[in-house]
């Protein structure tokens, strides 16, 4: 067990002290990155290193060059960067911690000799309800290191002479991620303290863009607070794949099957993921699952993401058009300023949100869409699906829009070009399968969303709405 969890009972430790001990433990473990046979299946609870394995060896590496992908010509220079960044590694929510406590108490109450149950009963339940989804020390490292890599990747844009605009969701983990990212910029750009310290720059709280889903009445009523909207998720929880895991784990822990349900099994699985992501250890909770189990539990998590944040209902993605349009509004402004030989007013825009910020936006743009929807009864058919949330929005996931100005363009249309990167990898455009697009071509491809997706109209409930999902 990691050194941070030895000694007095966690209940007698203050939360700040526990966070400090975790930070020290992380530093000690930095040179011995842990891997797990299950780590590729943790969905939105996945650590960022799972999509960029080279970071396990060197957290500041930009990774190998991507073969077959064309970059803009040498005559093209970045004009504006828009970065949408999910917060770094976080602690479990209070709800998850309480469920884990329920499961842990169940195992500690066992009277029968059962090795697996006894091992987990002895496990130090160090999570505290006050942690409630807050940014973990590893999450701060995620952000600091991401900032340093982006400085190395875009030295012309992220320089000490540039202006940075910071915005964040109001959630503590996002605000803290913004602060940690600024510290990373400070380390890269101003190793020595200076009067213009980036670390002290203000972050604007902007839930209108970073938590657009909270402001969309149709989404909140028809999906978020509508129990029937998650029918496919609930059906899969009761399906044969989950029943098999339930029976297997009940037998392993020597407890009646009736004492377990899909939610408790998920909590055990996610505890394995939290221990790896937060503390870089293989938790004893991981021993309950094999790779087949992990694939089933990944699908359960992906089902929820699909129906609540992805392609399941149109309103999931349409609610993000306010953010999508804002990206193009700033690009248009930057191009107008460039054509007028004016300084770019917002060369670098850094926004910190959630998986729920990025996933609907990617769905709105049409990325990672499978031919068939994810449902409770097509698990085997979807084994090779595109929609895998752990590959798309792990902790610290980031979606970068980069606008380039090309001096030696042959035509006016070629003067401004765009690239998109997801998790620091070039994302081919759907209209061309290329990784560079003329800005005019990109605007034309998304013309309907840019012109016809009105957030107020999309999110307004019809007067006859009865929270049915039929019209979604």
UniProtKB/TrEMBL annotation:
Subcellular location: Cell membrane
GO MF term list: acid phosphatase activity; bisphosphoglycerate 3-phosphatase activity; inositol bisphosphate phosphatase activity; inositol hexakisphosphate phosphatase activity; inositol trisphosphate phosphatase activity; inositol-1,3,4,5,6-pentakisphosphate 3-phosphatase activity; inositol-1,4,5,6-tetrakisphosphate 6-phosphatase activity
Main subcellular location: membrane
GO BP annotations, alphabetical order: intracellular monoatomic cation homeostasis
Alphabetically ordered keywords of this record: Cell membrane, Disulfide bond, Glycoprotein, Hydrolase, Membrane, Signal
EC number: 3.1.3.62, 3.1.3.80
Keyword Membrane: yes
Enzyme category, top tier: hydrolase
Stored Pfam families: His_Phos_2
Catalysis performed (reactions): 1D-myo-inositol 1,3,4,5,6-pentakisphosphate + H2O = 1D-myo-inositol 1,4,5,6-tetrakisphosphate + phosphate; (2R)-2,3-bisphosphoglycerate + H2O = (2R)-2-phosphoglycerate + phosphate; 1D-myo-inositol hexakisphosphate + H2O = 1D-myo-inositol 1,2,3,5,6-pentakisphosphate + phosphate; 1D-myo-inositol 1,2,5,6-tetrakisphosphate + H2O = 1D-myo-inositol 1,2,6-trisphosphate + phosphate
Taxonomy, superkingdom: Eukaryota
InterPro entries in alphabetical order: His_Pase_clade-2, His_PPase_superfam, Histidine_acid_Pase_euk
Gene Ontology cellular-component annotations: endoplasmic reticulum lumen; extracellular space; plasma membrane
Disulfide bonds: 76-406, 272-286
PANTHER family in the record: MULTIPLE INOSITOL POLYPHOSPHATE PHOSPHATASE 1, MULTIPLE INOSITOL POLYPHOSPHATE PHOSPHATASE-RELATED
Sequence similarity: Belongs to the histidine acid phosphatase family. MINPP1 subfamily.
Identification of the protein by name: Multiple inositol polyphosphate phosphatase 1
Species per Swiss-Prot/TrEMBL record: Pelodiscus sinensis (Chinese softshell turtle)
